[in-house]
Fold:
Amino acid sequence: MSRNYLVCAGCHRPLDIGDRYYPGICCTLGVCCAPTFDALLQEPTSFVERDDDTMPLSREKRQAMLDEHLATGGRMTDSMALEVVE
Structure:
């Protein structure tokens, strides 16, 4: 079953049930366009608090997110598209 109403804001590809996506503040990005974990350190102004999109995430929070991902066997180049369309 296709969820064609949910599309990647970067490439406009429809997201289907089971597809992974990155829930941005004002858009949804599929695996193809989502940031990778290394962007947490390389593009610090791209990440903001979930409850206040005017407040950039602190370096400590970004580092903690990266450390948690790496501790579970992840890589820096993994996509941050971890949510799954249901």
Notes: The mean pLDDT is 92. Residues 2-84 form one domain. The first strand starts at residue 2 and ends at 7. The chain is about 20% helix and 30% strand.
